[in-house]
Amino acid sequence: MSNFYEERATMIAAGDLQEFVPFGRDHCKHHPNALNLQLRQLQPASELWSSDGAAGLVGSLQEVTIHEKQKESWQLRKGVSEIGEEVDYDEELYVAGNMVIWSKGSKSQALAVYKAFTVDSPVQQALWCDFVISQDKSEKAYSSDEVEKCICILQSSCINMHSIEGKDYIASLPFQVANVWPTKYGLLFERSSSSHEVPPGPPREPLPTMFSMLHPLDEITPLVCKSGSLFGSSRVQYVVDHAMKIVFLNTDPSIIMTYDTVQSLHSVWALRRVKTEEENVVLKFSEQGGTPQNVATSSSLTAHLRSLSKGDSPVASPFQNYSSIHSQSRSTSSPSLHSRSPSISNMAALSRAHSPALGVHSFSGVQRFNLSSHNQSPKRHSISHSPNSNSNGSFFAPETEPIVPELCIDHLWTETVTNIREKNSQASKVFITSDLCGQKFLCFLVESQLQLRCVKFQESNDKTQLIFGSVTNIQAKDAAPVEKIDTMLVLEGSGNLVLYTGVVRVGKVFIPGLPAPSLTMSNTMPRPSTPLDSVSTPKPLSKLLGSLDEVVLLSPVPELRDSSKLHDSLYNEDCTFQQLGTYIHSIRDPVRNRVTLELSNGSMVRITIPEIATSELVQTCLQAIKFILPKEIAVQMLVKWYSVHSAPGGPSYHSEWNLFVTCLMNMMGYNTDRLAWTRNFDFEGSLSPVIAPKKARPSETGSDDDWEYLLNSDYHQNVESHLLNRSLCLSPLEVSQMKDEDFSQNLILDSSTLLFTHIPAIFFVLHLVYEELKLNTLMGEGIRSLVDLLVQLARDLKLEPYVDHYYRDYPRLVRTTGQVCTVDQGQTGFMHHPSFFTSEPPSIYQWVSSCLKGEGTPPYPYLPGICERSRLVVLSIALYILGDESSISDESSQYLSRITIAPQKCQAEPEENRFSFRHSTSVSSLAERLVVWMTNVGFTLRDLETLPFGIALPIRDAIYHCREQPASDWPEAVCVLIGRQDLSKQACEGNLPKGKSSVTQVLSSDVPSGTETEEEDDGMNDMNQEVMSLIWSEDLRVQDVRRLLQSAHPVRVNVVQYPELSDHEFIEEKENRLLQLCQRTMALPVGRGMFTLFSYHPVPTEPLPIPKLNLTGRAPPRNTTVDLNSGNIDVPPNMTSWASFHNGVAAGLKIAPASQIDSAWIVYNKPKHAELANEYAGFLMALGLNGHLTKLATLNIHDYLTKGHEMTSIGLLLGVSAAKLGTMDMSITRLLSIHIPALLPPTSTELDVPHNVQVAAVVGIGLVYQGTAHRHTAEVLLAEIGRPPGPEMEYCTDRESYSLAAGLALGMVCLGHGSNLIGMSDLNVPEQLYQYMVGGHRRFQAGLHREKHKSPSYQIKEGDTINVDVTCPGATLALAMIYLKTNNRSIADWLRAPDTMYLLDFVKPEFLLLRTLARCLILWDDILPNSKWVDSNVPQIIRENSISLSEIELPCSEDLNLETLSQAHVYIIAGACLSLGFRFAGSENLSAFNCLHKFAKDFMTYLSAPNASVTGPYNLETCLSVVLLSLAMVMAGSGNLKVLQLCRFLHMKTGGEMNYGFHLAHHMALGLLFLGGGRYSLSTSNSSIAALLCALYPHFPAHSTDNRYHLQALRHLYVLAAEPRLLVPVDVDTNTPCYALLEVTYKGTQWYEQTKEELMAPTLLPELHLLKQIKVKGPRYWELLIDLSKGTQHLKSILSKDGVLYVKLRAGQLSYKEDPMGWQSLLAQTVANRNSEARAFKKQEILDLFSSVLYECVTQETPEMLPAYIAMDQAIRRLGRREMSETSELWQIKLVLECFSSRSHQERLQNRPKRGLLMNSEFLPVVKCTIDNTLDQWLQAGGDVCVHAYLSGQPPEESQLSMLACFLVYHSVPAPRHLPSIGLEGSTSFAELLFKFKHLKMPVRALLRLAPLLLGNPQPMVM
Q1: Which range in 355-369, 1219-1233, 1771-1785 is most confidently predicted, on average pLDDT?
Q2: Cα 761 from chain centroid?
């Protein structure tokens, strides 16, 4: 049969033929722009240039002509999907005129327009390009950077780039571009060389010709070339050779092919980033050569590149350059280069325009590149020039800086010079193709010689460079690669289309519907007129091709050729006349396996080249064979297979395998016609060329063979056994079995065939493929097909063990005897037995089984890339069962032997290495390693489901382990694999950028309920009701808080009109009452801001709704409106200004930090009316506090500040500072310094900055420098605490707030640094502060402000003493913050309250509060949450003499001032309480709460006590407010009911002493209590305490405009102390929040040991640094552990995304909401109703079994084991019926049993007896017992004879074959060939047998069953 393979003209049938029209062409006609173009042609040219921005007059004239015939071009590429999945469709980029149309296909539809672009001038070129957005320019960083996918459109003057994200860039081009190429790094430009570029005159450096641009915003830089040793030593220089043209550029590998027009040679270069040393060489090399004169002449390439416009002609019109100046302005603002003034290039342009001749000379120099750059710093300073540069050069000299090149090309290869080199042999088409074995070729088509030259190249071993090999020439008119199947199409000169792989010819391509040209002149009849001639009227394709069919059926038509090519024809046959028909003219647009053919009549058709194989089985086998054969043979083998497979009328899917077998065996030398099982292959009528030509002989008569063929067919056998057959009593036909002896002499293998010598290698890899397929339950059909082939080969190679192995797997398929083909003994020697060939068949099941039993096994052979499942199974068993952690880490594993073609050292059978179990690592970490590794190698749940259940069991066990105790930070894929959707969703949320998560949708109420929408917005609609209703489910406290905090509705003014009051007086009375109530209303917004903190994601298209502040009232009973503006009473001016500021802040703080807002939106919110300016000021401050103000452009910030609106400045300065907390940001520092005279230089002009703005700026400095201990800032602030009033009375009012601000700022700057303030010892900070606190003489002011401070003060006579009333609060708090938590006793003692009456008189009682607070904050660890500790802060003298306020009479004592004592007492207690609040802020500490609650109650009673007047109601109110705030701090976010009651009670008090400040305090307490709607709590970090000290400063404003002691805006700094701590469990299935039980473990501290606490979430967590771990507890939800010892980052990210923690209900459980007590779960029910009425069924046992199995699976949470249970049950039943046709299921059961009895499993059970089992422990023994019984019964019923026959090597009887196989497999009986070596016959006792069988590793219970047979006793010993 070998004659069949000689070069016959094998034809390859192309797939479907479709007419091809570029999609864009059609779209263009309808695109709105087509009309404008025609209109444009009609305009007179003179008007055109002005309308066309960039093109000058000349350009426009050209443009008109272009449109007369619209050029079009298009390119196609493989579709790129966004998600990164495999897609197979085309994308087209179509260019015509000014339009670019990008269309995409998709999986389901044809092309559709994706984007269309229209530009101003004709498009010269359009292309796709990916730009790298990289921070680091080095090559290494390249891989990790993000890529910006763009489309680039080249016009004559500029290039537009549009990224798919929607960014647009335009870059002007400083020269005319001939071509643009996309590279791996960016764009590459070729400058078009024009005639006037080589002017006469002195010799100069020519300009570079190639430039690169790495990003649309980068500069265009010249390309450097490093030529190799071809020209001697390698030198680096710019690419300046005009003769060098790029003909091809490829991205991977990154190479360029150029053509030298002078030498007519092609060269290949590698394109890479430039190295620094090369940069330096290039930038300096001009200094060595040439005179200074020379350098100077060429001094202005900058100007040239920047302004020489398009070089149309040397004498261009002035206009043109003028326009170019404007078009340049965009590109010059490149980010990387430093200083550049536009005037230079304008001058340059104009000067060139006026003096054309001179311009040309001076402008084309290369100076810009040659300047040496002495410093390689990013700021490249310009370099001055030598003095003797000529005028022209020095004019530009100061400005130019060198452009640093970015890409470099290295020379790789140049084609050899031949003598007969034609002038124009430039390649018209270049591509890279690889052949079927992966060898790569660079092919270029030289059309003038009709040659395709193919250069083979490969990577060097170290992967750094490419090595080019020999050149092969193929005669061709055109060619294109078919990358999907590693081939290329070549159009020969004769018009034939031929397929090549590499340089090997595969065969002609037959295109159904196109006539094949042929060289025979058999058909001279005239053709019908050309069917594909008219493009204009697209007929349906069937009609187009219909007329061709009859022609094709005749013999092939003569050859057709292009008449122009006739003279250089390569053929000399006599076909000279021109055929009338159409023929293929060229090939274009190859994508995957599709390609377009251009026909001679201008129409185009697109064809598909068929794939190599469609069925998975054939593909795998081909891959394996290709892997093992030498490359040349592999290519030949694949070529033959391909030409067989793709022949016209090729096979269908079914018969592809049969075809493959036939083809393969033919190539091995078999005669498939004579072989019984291949003879019957049914090729469904298509007689493919494999079945030898003689078979298709044209015989009319038929023959006997045909009848035999029918009788032997499968169909016949099926019909024969059909019921109908029996009922009709048709007697079976006698099939004359072909006598074996007819065949035996013929069946000799032909040793001359291609694959004969490689049969053993091919057999072995196919065996490995077979083992691999056994691991995929879906491939059962394929395995059975493969077995036939393997058995035949194994028999012929006389490999008994293999035949036995296949028999045990498929007893029905593998007969023990069969047709053998002899291999000629003489030829056996030629067969190549590879080194990896083993005589024992490798079996994956056997390998796993040995591992489970702990026996040693040789490493398992594996084919890289083909047997990936085997590798995965082997390594996972090694890792999980043997516990060898190194198995997956290193590539050369002891468990696998990689098969390679390279002949290894001939080793004997690999020795067996004993595998031992290692117990070092815990099972959970092994399981974790396994699962993580499996996801890394891409193993998914679908793969797991197709593994056989026995093999999958250890993997499932590991997964079950991980599911029980997962880590919280595993990647998403791992969580999906272990079946924890809750975790995978969490991980998936974690990867989303903030603000895009679906969390926000889960946790935001979409539509407020109907009632709220009608009334005006009170600013609290956006709260998350769902979560709040879970946290506070028992009552309506949230509605109550809303009612208390709303300020948008009128208040109720309830005044009784007494008879003596006149109406007018009554109205005044009402308005006075309203004024009182308004004090409260104005104080509400601060609290509301706390309540709604971060609860809203704004819509970027709408302004933020700010609820209005309603200061009117309604008087019952008639509900008349009461208004303050009636003029009846005096209302303070500007009363509402701060209230509206707070209102704005409250509204702004609703915006969550994760929202997506930008500068434009912030400006867009600016109100139209001036009266809303205060609200906007507050809004700006709020944006700073939640971090959004950093997005506001600097321009806008300055814009707001220059308006001079006081509130806006305050809000903006504080906001910006808060946003830049602790960053020392320079630009912000400058901004703040302008507002602080002390930070300005002494000589600067005095700016008139409002006082409050100064205060805000000083605090801002503190925020920006927080914790930095910056010396200069600290020094200035220290001085500012005691800043005296100035000479012109400028600082005399509200000095207290400025001094306090300076103190707070100083404290922030040195926050917590204590005594180790580095480099500040000379400032004596603590001593200076102490002096400010207690008074004394002012120190002499050194330095800046000496002059200002000379004059005495005015309003208060201070002289040179310190005014303690002003400086004390600031200094006290500064000390507290500097020594915060340092437990420094000496400083703390300074702050002790004085303990003598005399000293007490010197201190304001208010300051005692601050001192006590400061002292306690320093002694942080001494604070204890009980009243005893609080009282311990009170000095003895006060404790002994203080009156208890409830007493009636006052004790009289002349030397004690009772008033002072009692005031001191209450203030000290309040200070201690406040420190308690700070210490336990946000902790919900119960003892702290009880202690503070007691003091709050006490103060409430004091207030109503008869002698409260001694202490003074104002003081008591202040203390009560302070204690209430402390209480709210401790309970922050918890919504505690008792505190709420206190707040509500105080809300109702509006008369008497209750002023604006107290209301502010009470409602701040209420806000803190419900901070962020219960989602936020307070932190006790240093930074938070500093912020809270500013916000809760215990001196409250007296009225709404009071900023004397403390700036009101600072009250909002509490935001900096708030942190999200609410954990909300969300059910992953329903996506709703739910309850879940948490177990929180605290780390041990000095006060308590490590403890655990159970919380019901949603709940506020304690501060994270106190916790060790958090666990979601069962039994209802899957457990989940978040370990904080590894770091808190993971939990923080969960909390910051609204605290959503996904949880998953276990099977059969209900949520806590539906079933609070847990009495309704499935488990609770099933116990009761196990005995249901299912008894009635016949199939009782099956039902019982399945119900118990189902119950087991559900309760153990292992539903994935159900299929395994059912499969095992079915297998056992089948075995009982003796219907096992294959033993794979028995193998699986065996593996399951072995897995559960394996040592590793038993030991793991002992370690953790509690753990749930994967399979029911009662089920397995039953399985085992049943199988044993069935097999024993078979033995007794005559099976023993069968076994005996098998062991002694005789053929057993047919009917018993399958049971015998089951017995052998289940009992691991060794093959007969192992027995003789033991010498069985002599054995007499069982003991002897045991000893002899020891090394065969046969289980004892199997031996017991065999013993009777072996010992000659026919009765089996059944246990």
Answers
A1: 1219-1233
A2: 44
Least confident of 760-774, 1437-1451, 1674-1688: 1437-1451
Cis peptide, bond prior to residue 253, ω within 30 of zero:
yes
3-state SS, one letter per residue, for 820-875 = CCECCHHHHCCCCCCCCCCCCCCCHHHHHHHHHHCCCECCEEECCCCCHHHHHHHH
Token pair belonging to 1666:
């106190």
Residue 1609 near residue 1256, CB atoms below 8 Å: yes
Q: What is the spatial distance between Cα 1273 and Cα 1904, in angstroms, rounded to a whole number?
A: 93
**Distance set, CA 955 to CA 894, 931, 951, 977, 1792 (Å):** 20, 8, 8, 11, 12
Tokens representing residue 1302 in the block: 């300076």
Rounded-to-integer distance, Cα 1244 and Cα 1891, Å: 107
Token duo for residue 1498:
């006490």
Residue from 359, 366, 364 nearest 314 by CA: 359
Q: What is the DSSP string of 1675-1713?
A: TTB--EEEESTT-SHHHHHHHHTTTEEEE-BPTT---TT
Strand partners, 1618: 1578
Kind plus residue range of the DSSP H or E element containing 1090 = helix 1063-1091
Question: Strand 1700-1703 and strand 1622-1627: pairing?
Answer: parallel
937 DSSP 8-state letter: T
CB of 661 closer than 8 Å to CB of 678: yes
Return the bridge partners of 1633, or none: 1626
Residue 132 in contact with residue 116, Cβ under 8 Å? Answer: no
For 1593, phi and psi rounded to 5 degrees?
-50, 125
Tell which phi-psi region holds residue 546, choosing left (phi > 0), alpha (psi between -120 and 50) or beta: alpha
Helix or strand run (H / E) with residue 246 = strand 244-250
Average pLDDT over residues 1493-1499: 95
Q: What CA–CA distance (Å, rounded) separates 477 from 479?
A: 7
What amino acid is encoded at 495 in this protein? G
Secondary structure letter of residue 1223 according to DSSP: -
pLDDT in tens, 687-745: 333 443 333 344 455 556 566 666 666 666 655 555 555 555 555 454 444 444 444 44
Question: How far apart are alpha carbons 229 and 237 in whole angstroms?
Answer: 14
Long-range CB contact pairs, 238-245, < 8 A, 24+:
238/208, 238/282, 238/366, 238/369, 238/405, 239/208, 239/209, 239/210, 239/409, 240/205, 240/206, 240/207, 240/208, 240/209, 241/209, 242/193, 242/197, 242/206, 242/209, 244/209, 244/210, 245/190, 245/426
pTM across the whole model: 0.73
Token pair belonging to 1777: 């019926």
Q: What is the pLDDT of residues 1566-1579, one digit of tens each?
A: 999 999 999 999 99
DSSP run (H or E) holding 255: strand 255-260
Residue 1188's alpha-carbon distances to 493, 973, 1075, 1104, 1680, in angstroms, are 69, 34, 36, 14, 34
Q: What are phi and psi of 1310, to 5 degrees?
A: -105, 30
